[in-house]
């Protein structure tokens, strides 16, 4: 896997100060192979490597990780970023109803299946009334197929009128949606085996009469390199708003995702993960980045690297704690570290010595969103209050809660956590001071 390959390249570099251009170039040869093996289109791989090279050259190699691991982190971060970053974009359903979602793509890419999956999602998750219409007059029984799927997910489909052409069906669907007070109208269009002019003209005409809020390009993730050409042709003709990658349950390595995103510039909104009609998920850039790199351990490497970046912070904190100082500013630093290390789940692994504080965390039933809240709460305190939490009387707590958009209860939780942690730290100090703390952060 890539991690081993990079390990070999960098073994001889261990301990050097900064990544040189030659180091990075050697590493990028391996990254390039990994990308192509994952079916990333060649021009996209090239572009990606240029970006990463620019970022990596000259970066300091952190003390406790190898240059290979450092490069993996940079590559992984860039992949996640290019795949859409942390934000997953959902469907735009807030426009004036009927909101039209138009599905486009090649034949067999999974349009009809995805239409039914989305219909179900819109009904169940969004609580909206959906109507589905098949405009596929190319494939025999294509309209029947959607009807059957509609019955399975209990979402209405437009009655079939034999012989009617796509644009007329679209008009009729709009009319029906209005009459039936439908919130979301899903238009499942015809595909071809290859992109051709007739198909594109049809797409445009349908978009013309239905003014879709979303035009989703459905792409089979197994098509790999080909996916780029498809995306290019479609995005040149119809105003896409997003991409759905199907068959992510198969052995696709995820390269199509990177290519899609790069070529269309549009977010990948969903991943199809099976033939069943609930097999659809919000697209997860982190997971797909891991898949492209072909290594399950990339995440742990990255987290290790992230922890190392914070090592200096931790050392400064350790010194303060050893003196028995641990105020809310320190707690805030800790909270931010937890977030950047991948949340509370990671904390358990990172701080094996901190049983007490860990137990306190678990007991308070926190999830990662809570970290963000806690940060906001501490942010709403004055510097004095942060340094001396005992100043926070009922009145001040109320102000802090209002300022952070939370409740006094939550402010109390932060204070309790701070108490638990400082108590735990005092114990550690008793147990052996800095030596004990070394174990805590080692
Ligand atoms: P269309 O021609 O674009 O409308 O494609 P269909 O929706 O008819 O799908 C073609 C085939 O792909 C069907 O057998 C689907 O069950 C299958 N399919 C669609 N999406 C997925 C998916 O995410 N995973 C898997 N394994 N199969 C899928
Ligand atoms: Mg179809």
TrEMBL record:
Membrane topology, as annotated: Peripheral membrane protein
List of residues binding GTP: 105-112, 188-192, 246-249
Keywords, ordered alphabetically: Cytoplasm, GTP-binding, Hydrolase, Nucleotide-binding, Ribonucleoprotein, RNA-binding, Signal recognition particle
Domain SRP54-type proteins GTP-binding, first and last residues per copy: 267-280
Broadest EC class assigned to this enzyme: hydrolase
Pfam families xref list: SRP54, SRP54_N, SRP_SPB
CDD domains according to UniProt: SRP_G
SUPFAM superfamilies: P-loop containing nucleoside triphosphate hydrolases (SSF52540), Signal peptide-binding domain (SSF47446)
Localization annotation: Cell inner membrane; Cytoplasm
PROSITE patterns recorded: SRP54
EC numbers, comma separated: 3.6.5.4
Catalytic activity annotation: GTP + H2O = GDP + phosphate + H(+)
InterPro entries hit by this protein: AAA+_ATPase, P-loop_NTPase, Signal_recog_part_SRP54_M_sf, Signal_recog_particl_SRP54_hlx, Signal_recog_particle_SRP54_M, SRP, SRP54, SRP54_GTPase_dom
Subunit structure: Part of the signal recognition particle protein translocation system, which is composed of SRP and FtsY. SRP is a ribonucleoprotein composed of Ffh and a 4.5S RNA molecule.
Domain notes: Composed of three domains: the N-terminal N domain, which is responsible for interactions with the ribosome, the central G domain, which binds GTP, and the C-terminal M domain, which binds the RNA and the signal sequence of the RNC.
Entry function: Involved in targeting and insertion of nascent membrane proteins into the cytoplasmic membrane. Binds to the hydrophobic signal sequence of the ribosome-nascent chain (RNC) as it emerges from the ribosomes. The SRP-RNC complex is then targeted to the cytoplasmic membrane where it interacts with the SRP receptor FtsY. Interaction with FtsY leads to the transfer of the RNC complex to the Sec translocase for insertion into the membrane, the hydrolysis of GTP by both Ffh and FtsY, and the dissociation of the SRP-FtsY complex into the individual components.
Family affiliation: Belongs to the GTP-binding SRP family. SRP54 subfamily.
Matching NCBIfam families: ffh (TIGR00959)
Protein name: Signal recognition particle protein
Organism: Altererythrobacter litoralis
Lineage: Bacteria, Pseudomonadati, Pseudomonadota, Alphaproteobacteria, Sphingomonadales
